[in-house]
Amino acid sequence: MMAQWLTNVDWLEIGRACGDTLVMVGVSLFFVVLLGLPLGIALFLTGKRQLLEQPLVYAVLSFVVNLLRSVPFVILLIVMIPVTVVLVGTSLGVPGAIPPLVVGGAPLFARLVEAALREVDRGIVEATQAMGATVPQIVFGALLPEALPGILAGVTVTSITLVSYAAMSGVIGGGGLGDLAIRFGYQRFQTDVMVITVALLVVLVQLLQMLGDRLVLRFSRR
Amino acid sequence: MIEFDGVRKTYRVRGQEILALEVERLTIERGEVFGIVGHSGAGKSTLLRLVNLLERPSQGRVVVEGEDVTCLAPAQLRAFRRRIGMIFQHFNLLSSKTVAENVAFPLKIAGTESRAAIAARVEELLALVGLSEHADKYPAQLSGGQKQRVGIARALACRPSILLSDEATSALDPQTTRSVLQLLSDINRRLGLTIVLVTHEMDAVRRVCDRVAVMDGGRVVETGPVSEVFLHPRHPTTREFVLESEHVDTEEFQESLQQAAGRVVRLTFKGASTYRPLLGEVVRRCGVDFSILAGRIDHIKDVPYGQLTLSFVGGDVEAALRAFTEAGVDVEVLR
Asked: How confident is the model at residue A2 (pLDDT cuts 50, 70, 90)?
């Protein structure tokens, strides 16, 4: 009865799509953290009443971040096509999806990092300053270790957002589970494929959240 | 030695200049425990933060051990700050680091000692504050008093010559407060460290300080040796603090003064005279009678003192008062 209902499902194809989604999310998450972490630190440090208060720099950074975050991801996918071609040589498949995922995810992650750093008690910064620490020593020695649980929670939220963005990239031929859902589930009315891909995405998100929660707990000392 | 010279700190709030602190002249001697007391908002924490330039004065000079700190370049300022330890009301320990890592942190920042030397120093410091067996715990696993001990060990890590204490006992219960103050007192004696102690508790000042400055509205209103300021407060704010620390209700006290007969006198015994049977002796000799209206016997740092408010009736009261004065007792006639 199960086999009858799932006639359209090619398990090999599903497996490959799963792998593609994981690669897209994994690789883009790596670059999102690589770009978003320094951006978040810069936002925090140049903010009002912070260590390197720079109202103009903060205003510019903040504007760019808001701008990128206000463009709907489907539009960003399309707008990014020429840039993607320059960066990775194609706008299709797994590689073609990664640049828009990074550009879509990094500003979100930067804001989450900024918020996590703001949660650190000002007294800790003051105490570290009183020890004669430089700004890099304060950031790497005190702020980042203290904000680590918050930053890890931010990585979790961002990775889940990237899963849904990665699925959306199927619209422009991005590959992965989203691509499968659109090409088979939507365009060919293969409801069973649609259900399976959505179910797999649900499982993936649940797993990511569980993993993230564990990491946050592991590094919380409060 | 720490000198404040014509120091002013102002803030601009919506175009308006607000004066937060104005100290014409204040000197803290090397090796003393100096208290700064005042209500919240009196400017005492701001004054303390001028010493290591966590706050920059708008005007004037702050000279620490011969150096005008307001003129230091950034790198010099960082080196200078390493010579000053600081402890805080809310401890400000890093929750992500163990006790040992917290104490090692300033040494790592200084970057002048090897890993082995840092480990040895941390062990020594934890022994000093009595926390050796808690080295691998995280701050969240400690009690308030233990956290402040970690704070003290951390503040002493770079062998500072000055320790700044910003309401360090205000978040602790009375018993823990006493043990932390005792520790500070020991450190002052053993290491010859200058301690500047900001507090709103006159009791903390009485226990450990040599001299005290009383602040009100951003100004120092009274300063002097603790015994002097504590036993003979002149400024209304100081009087308020002293009475508060004794849990005396001012109105009730005035009422009992009204009802007393004869001459009302306050006698202050200090040091050795505290234990002499002076009162009975003088009273017998001059044939006066007395009743006790108020009294306390306690210590200021290590000096015992007694202060009695008495009403004298009959006999030769004037001769009795002279006899007390001759015996080295402070006599104040209240009525």
From this structure: low
Distances (CA, A) of B314 to B69, B261, B327: 62, 10, 21
DSSP state of B221: E
User: Rounded to a whole number, what is the distance in Å from the CA of A143 to chain B's nearest CA?
Assistant: 9
The CA–CA distances, whole Å, from B288 to A147, B262, B294, B310, B316 equal 72, 11, 18, 12, 6
pLDDT at A178: 84
Supply φ then ψ for residue B299, to 5 degrees: -120, 145
Which helix (H) or strand (E) covers residue B263, if one does?
strand B263-270
Compare CB distances from B97 to A123, A145, A222 and report the shortest one's residue.
A145
- The CATH 3.40.50.300 portion of chain B extends over 2-244
Distance of CA B333 to the CA centre of its chain: 29
Beta-carbon neighbour count of residue A89 at 10 Å?
9
Residue-wise pLDDT for B324-335, tens only, equals 888 888 888 887
pTM here is: 0.87
pLDDT at B83: 94
DSSP 3-state assignment of B266?
strand
- Please say whether the beta carbons of B230 and B247 come within 8 A: no
Query: Which chain A residues are within 8 Å of B84, Cβ to Cβ?
Result: 130
Closest CA to B106 of B147, B140, B155: B155
B33 CB neighbour count, 10 Å cutoff: 27
Report the topology of domain A2-219.
MetI-like fold (1.10.3720)
B262 burial via Cβ count (<10 Å: 0-12, 13-18, 19+) = middle
Closest partner residue to B86 among A130, A133, A219, by Cβ?
A130
At the fourth CATH level, the homologous superfamily of domain B258-333 is: ACT domain (3.30.70.260)
Q: Please give, rounded to a whole number of angstroms, the shortest distance from the CA of A118 to a CA of chain B.
A: 15
The CATH number of B2-244, from 3.90.850.10, 3.40.50.300, 3.10.50.40, 3.40.50.720, is: 3.40.50.300
ipTM of the complex: 0.85
Q: How far apart are CA A157 and CA A29, in angstroms?
A: 11
Residue of B nearest to A128 (CA): B106
